[in-house]
Every structure is written in C-alpha cells, then in structure tokens.
Amino acid sequence: MAITKSKLALIHVAKKQLALDDTSYRTVLEAFGGVKSAKHLTDQGFQAVMEHFERSGFQSSNYTPPRRSRPGMATVGQIKKIYKLWWRLGESYYTKGNERQALRGFLKKRFNVDHENFLTFETAGQVIEAIKNIGRRAA
C-alpha cells in the first residue's frame, strides 16, 4: 500500500529543506525505503526515510516520529502532551523555528535529560506540570 498524500508532501518538504538534488534524493529513497519513487513507499519505508532526514537535520512541527512503548519510560501520550503544551507557549518562550531545540534545552537544564525520548514516566509527568506552570505565568 502506498503512503498518503500528506506523507508524500512531507517527504518533498524535507527534500527541499535539506536542499537535496534529484540524484541524492533518489539515493536516499532507494537506500532507506527500498524504492525509486516516494509514491511507492510503504509506511515502514516512509518511517525509515524520515528518520534519515531527521538525522540529516530536517525539522518540522508537522512530523512527529512514532514512539514505541518502553517499560518505565514516557508514554506516547505523555510525549504528545509535552509537544502540545510546548508549542502553545509559542514565541513568548522561544523563537519560531527553534521549538524542538528550545524544548531539548529546557529538558537538559531543568531535568538533566538530553532528549524527550529519554524521559522516564515519572519525569515526563514533572515536565508536563513544569510546562503548564510556565504557560500560566506567561498568561
């Protein structure tokens, strides 16, 4: 089954943001997705290509990689809640375009965690409450 139009559009946005020429783009599709054209990507191929694009520097508020459940670690719902609350803070707390970088700086400074994927279940709850408090103070 082919990917959705929105996922296809996201692939093309990443290509443009990373300034990939057609040859490099097709090499990535073949190496990580196993296809020569993005319209033939499966969901698994799409995830692999997007993970490569993220490692290469692609950032988008429209794409959140899937989170897998890990015992003792933050749940998918907690991570989504953190993103939602963080994005609501807007430019009152960070500059536009640096949302993820600012979030990771906040996590490092306040919770000594380098990335939201490394949050434990308990710490994720504390992060949610801390971001809520920042939002209340900013309002």
Our measurement of the CA-to-CA distance between the termini, rounded to an integer number of angstroms, reads 46 Å
Question: What is the N-to-C order of secondary-structure elements (H for helix, E for strand)?
Answer: HHHHHH
Helix share bin: 55-70%
SS content category: mainly alpha
- Cα-based radius of gyration, to the nearest Å: 17 Å
Low-confidence stretches: none
Biggest sheet architecture:
none
Instruction: Compute the number of strand runs.
Output: 0
The dominant shape is elongated
Task: Provide the residue-averaged pLDDT.
Answer: 85
Query: What's the number of helices?
Result: 6
Strand content: under 5%
Structure write-up:
The chain is mainly α and 139 residues long. It is 60% helix and 0% strand. It has six helices and no strands. Helix 2 (22-33) crosses helix 3 (43-55) and helix 4 (76-89) runs parallel beside helix 6 (121-138). The model has no long low-confidence stretch (mean pLDDT 85).
Helices and strands, with pairings:
Elements lengths: L4 H13 L4 H12 L9 H13 L20 H14 L9 H13 L9 H18 L1
Compact summary:
Helix content is 60%, strand content 0%.
List keywords for this structure.
single chain, 139 residues, mainly alpha, elongated
